[in-house]
């Protein structure tokens, strides 16, 4: 009984996510869904990425939080459109919540929409929101055992950013082991090693995002 | 509709948790439910706590993970009884999962049972398992904004362990701010500042646990 309820919720969500996706397609908008544990660096990565790309790309952000609007305020300081979703307790964003933000955006004026999910390494991986792909962050302070322990998010994501590499001298964590365990679960994962604090590794990420926007457009035009 | 389904699940869980609690009461067993984000240090804290207390207290552990048994293996090395629950995808432990482990334990031979929940700062806070209290860990690498962003867990817990204080020189995080924000949400929270790596602050925690076991017993005998 419980399983069938959950399954119905997921199916209903998938339908809404597909409808969202059709709208994003029509607007030629690249959308990614950014997920991680609390405090892994989602908002910091967004701040850096916006600074680096905002001359080239018009970026919008949807901020998901249980409550509070601290992250949306941080993003709004960058002078780009941002909408806060407060889930009021729910542990992830779903397609319907994303849909509710559409009236707040002018999608014709955007190239890239980033959805920052609630900080949670488990539940957001189950729910599509209409994104082109899921991106995830793991910080080295969380430890190298996380791919094996939270496999769904590693399986569902197209790109993994291993963050806080500036802390590697002070923590017991092997980036090689994270990569090895990740590729067992998801052999196609694109992986970046970054520090949002020092900026190390971020140029490769920025270029990858630029390419993704371009690739999506040319695919669309064919 | 969705809300009422969730409410029924929570109510059914509360009933099972109460039944579990009655069994723990009968056996004079202190039970706490340990929660945090992935990688905040739940298993490391348990390893240290078992080493420090196992001469004085007979300790058992229930390990909750989505899949894998790495944590249970770490705890089993301490020579104490440990049972692994694999939730198979579920983001938290519930009363029923805990109930299923009872046949594996001899509660008459235990003073303290620790339930290590799935790494998730959101969902486990909603589900009672029959514990005397919830304990939570926040690592300083997660940032000082977490109490305001994930208030339920801070509200539901009796004790907060602020872990990885050895990393404070390298991260932008104020322990004072964490404490201030926590006490706004939960003025009665007992707070410890610890490092499972260096051992700093752990003696106060060990003594507190010893006192909790004693207090529970004398309350029971009256």
Short description:
The structure is a homodimer of 222-residue chains. Chain A has 222 residues and is α/β, with parallel strands linked by helices. Chain A is 41% helix and 18% strand.
Task: Work out the helix count of chain A.
Answer: 8
CATH architecture of chain A: 3-Layer(aba) Sandwich
As a whole number of angstroms, the C-alpha radius of gyration of chain A is: 17 Å
Highest CATH level, the class of chain A: Alpha Beta
Overall, the morphology of chain A is globular
Strand order of the largest sheet of chain A: 3-2-4-1-5-6-7
Largest interface: A-B, 37 and 37 residues
Per-chain topology:
The structure is a homodimer of 222-residue chains.
Chain A: H1 2-26, E1 30-35, H2 42-53, E2 59-65, H3 70-76, E3 82-86, H4 95-101, E4 112-116, E5 133-139, H5 146-149, H6 151-156, E6 159-163, H7 175-185, E7 190-193, H8 202-221
Parallel strand pairs in A: 1-4, 1-5, 2-3, 2-4, 5-6, 6-7
Structure commentary:
Two copies of one chain form a homodimer. The first copy, chain A, has about 220 residues and is of the alpha/beta class. Chain A has a single domain (about 1-220), classed as 3-Layer(aba) Sandwich (Rossmann fold), CATH 3.40.50.300. Chain A is built from eight helices and seven strands. Chain A has helices at about 1-25, 40-55, 70-75, 95-100, 145-150, 150-155, 175-185, 200-220; strands at about 30-35, 60-65, 80-85, 110-115, 135-140, 160-165, 190-195. Chain A has a seven-stranded parallel sheet, sandwiched between helices. In chain A, strand 2, helix 3 and strand 3 form a beta-alpha-beta unit. In chain A, helix 1 runs parallel beside helix 4 (about 95-100). The longest helix of chain A has 25 residues, at about 1-25. The first copy, chain A, is globular. In chain A, about 45% of the residues are buried. The mean pLDDT of chain A is about 95. Chains A and B meet through helix 1 and helix 5 of A and helix 1 and helix 5 of B.
